[in-house]
Specification:
The chain is mainly beta. The chain contains no helices and eleven strands. Strands 2, 4, 5, 6, 9, 10 and 11 form a seven-stranded mixed β-sheet that branches. Strands 1-3-8-7 form a four-stranded antiparallel β-sheet, with no helix packed on it. The N and C termini lie far apart (about 40 Å). The model has no long low-confidence stretch (mean pLDDT about 95).
Length: about 120
């Protein structure tokens, strides 16, 4: 049973930084992709960033160079370093992972709150 465990959310002032981490346990093989989505109140869940097994990264336009995603294929972990946070970044952030079989997994979500 694969489980994604997230950590690192919290409250930060505008302009501050947070680092989100996610570890996939229970999988004996590396994930094809791992990444982060976020969902603000009243909004749909939106992709923030993902990284492929080969190290290719992809970011949403709203990231605008402020976030950096990195991953470890051996440990099945993914990290999102978020800098220059603003109140519009307030949301629940969800880790996700896709196995080579196409099966998807989601974390329980971690709250990020940015105060103005």
């Amino acid at each position: 049973q694969v489980q994604l465990v997230e950590s690192g959310g919290g409250l930060v002032h505008s302009g501050g930084s947070l680092r989100l981490s996610c570890a996939a346990s229970g999988s004996r093989v590396s994930m094809q992709n791992m990444g982060w989505y976020r969902q603000a109140p009243g909004s749909q869940r939106a992709l923030v960033a993902f990284i492929t097994y080969g190290g290719t990264t992809n970011y949403a336009d709203f990231v605008e160079g402020r976030f950096t995603i990195s991953g470890d294929n051996v440990k099945n972990t993914v990290t999102l370093q978020m800098n220059s946070l603003n109140p519009e970044d307030t949301a629940v952030y969800y880790c996700y992972a896709i196995q080579w079989s196409g099966r998807e997994y989601w974390g329980q979500g971690t709250q990020v709150t940015v105060s103005s």
